[in-house]
Specification:
Layout: E1 2-5, E2 16-19, E3 29-39, H1 41-48, E4 57-62, E5 66-74, E6 86-90, E7 96-98, E8 104-108, E9 112-114, H2 121-125, H3 128-141, E10 149-152, H4 158-169, E11 173-177, H5 183-189, E12 191-194, H6 200-207, E13 212-217, H7 222-228, E14 231-239, E15 251-252, H8 259-270, E16 278-283, H9 287-295, E17 302-306
Helix pairs in contact: 3-4
């Protein structure tokens, strides 16, 4: 099969496109024909070696954790899916090895859910990592409730744009930080936009004089200090970008695969409560260009790699 891989850490230039062996399918896994795979910042951070202290790399590494595609073959202990089922998945292993920027990926059933029927493969591929991140933080750690005010940083990005919609669905008032060019986009999602940068605290206070009930940080750094000062009494703070959030009494979260959470996200998409904005798509062989665009850090919504390919021989 064709895939993108890298044999050493480095910049986008280490990514190569070529033939690799088709993955083996274990008893608790299914073989998924990849139709689309979203690009996430963690993809290029892994490629650069930033996660080497916590994730062992087995070179050559096929990058990518998000997938939308079709089940081709199931393992012997898999009653949940059958060939032809359309699925989405957050296919993260405990080490870096066989990812989703390939024609096929072997995915454990614990990483999969059925694809929303009303979304394209490209749109659906943007849900797993970003959607699970937003959903788990808002539900489990911030416990956002109806009538509360939530501040979402980088609200026009992949995680932020889904967090805005999920928080709004929970009945919260949402304030989102973004550049001015994305303010209309945030209004469409259901957020009140504010520009980031110097004076952010004053701008947020102007909208929420008594403080915000919860802050969802996707930026880290100075945003954490500003956010901590914006919390109302009993306010909650969570970050997916900076472990230093614990110094402010907050919670750091690294997303986990969860089929029930992923199924709920698929249901929200089918109900029209969650939509995915795909800013740009690239064919598999241009994954390096997709990584470069992601590293610029100014993407609205998601960047997606599209994948073709025929069924394996005998299928």
């Amino acid at each position: 099969m064709k895939a993108i891989s890298y044999a050493e850490y480095g910049g986008p230039e280490v990514l190569t496109f070529g033939e690799v062996d088709e993955p083996k399918v274990g008893p608790d896994s299914v073989l998924v024909r990849v139709r689309a795979a979203a690009v996430n910042p963690v993809d290029w951070k892994c490629r650069e070696g930033y996660l080497d202290p916590v994730l062992q790399a087995v070179f050559p590494v096929i990058p990518g954790w998000d997938v939308a595609g079709e089940v081709v073959r199931t393992g012997g202990a898999v009653p949940e899916f059958e060939p032809g089922d359309e699925v989405i998945g957050y296919v993260r292993e405990d080490f870096l090895s066989r990812g989703t920027f390939a024609e096929y990926v072997a995915a454990p059933v614990r990483a999969l859910a059925r694809k929303p029927r009303n979304l394209s493969f490209e749109e659906a591929a943007g849900i797993p990592l970003a959607g699970l991140t937003a959903y788990q933080v808002l539900h489990r750690f911030l416990a956002v409730g109806r009538g509360e005010t939530v501040l979402v940083h980088a609200a026009a990005g992949g995680v932020g744009s889904l967090a805005v919609q999920i928080a709004a669905h929970l009945g919260a008032r949402v304030i989102g930080t973004a550049s001015e060019r994305n303010h209309d986009f945030l209004r469409e999602l259901g957020a009140e936009p504010v520009s980031y940068g110097e004076g952010l605290g004053e701008r947020v206070r102007g909208l929420a004089p008594e403080g915000v009930d919860a802050v969802f940080d996707t930026v880290g750094g100075d945003a954490l200090k500003v956010s901590a000062n914006l919390l109302a009494p009993e306010g909650r703070l969570a970050s997916v970008a900076d472990g230093g959030v614990v110094d402010y009494g907050g919670h750091y979260h690294f997303v986990r695969p969860d089929p029930e959470d992923l199924t709920r996200l698929s249901e929200l998409a089918e109900q029209g409560a969650l939509r995915v904005h795909v800013s740009e798509t690239f064919p598999l062989e241009r994954t390096a260009d997709a990584h470069r665009l992601s590293q610029e850090g100014r993407t609205r919504g998601k960047i997606v790699v599209t994948v073709g390919g025929e069924a394996p021989e005998g299928q």
